[in-house]
Amino acid sequence: MAPLSTTTMTGFLKSAKFEDFCSSTEQHFKNNPEDVGSAVKAVKAVAWFLYENSISGEQRRPVIETVITSVNIITRFEQNVAVIKDIGSSLYHITTRLDKQGKDLLLLADFVPVVLSLYEVLSDGTALYSMAYNLYGALWNFTITNEPRAKSEAEVIALIKVQYVALQFQMMNPASERSEE
């Protein structure tokens, strides 16, 4: 099993060959469903690309679905705190870029539960408290900003889903738990 090439993935992204990026990455994961190294590379490649670039609306969903596939692999097979923290940081960046670039509420509602699942992998999440709190703030602000624009039932449900995940991130901080009396 040869891992995915970072150079190839970033080349596809830089040249806006998003379909090629998605199809080659998804095919690799279909053939190698436990390849954590390639999954990490895929998440980091997208985070890197989004640092200075954007992905158009119709291309955005397939790329994020590829990131979701990658995170699902990492969540199932990786327990290393440093790797989880590194990927958590990349996912935070992707989340905030999705907010700034497209305000795609339905896509964000599909994406953030997967981000949360990565944070829940660690039994001792102290290494992730500050990132979890930052995600809570970013997602909560996103919902408050977008609430007046939610017109359809699907958008309202998506907002509730994002708010729920935001609160789950807040609850990761032990200071937010109520003391037992």
Question: What does it look like?
Answer:
The protein is globular and about 45 Å long. The chain is built from 8 helices and no strands. The chain is mainly alpha-helical and 181 residues long. 73% of the residues lie in helices and 0% in strands. α1 runs parallel beside α3 and α2 packs parallel to α4. The longest helix has 21 residues. The protein starts with 5 loop residues before the first helix and ends in an 11-residue tail after the last helix.
Oligomer kind: single chain
% residues in beta strands: under 5%
Tertiary shape: globular
- The beta-strand count equals 0
What's the helical proportion of residues? Answer: over 70%
Major sheet: size, sense and barrel closure? none
Counting H and I runs of at least 4 residues, what is the number of helices? 8
Order of helices and strands: HHHHHHHH
* Rg over alpha carbons: 16 Å
Mean pLDDT: 89
Structural class from helices and strands?
mainly alpha
Unreliable residue stretches: none
The N- to C-terminal Cα distance equals 55 Å
Topology:
Blueprint: H1 6-14, H2 18-31, H3 36-52, H4 57-77, H5 81-101, H6 105-119, H7 129-146, H8 153-170
What's the quick description here?
The chain is mainly α and 181 residues long. Helices cover 73% and strands 0% of the residues.
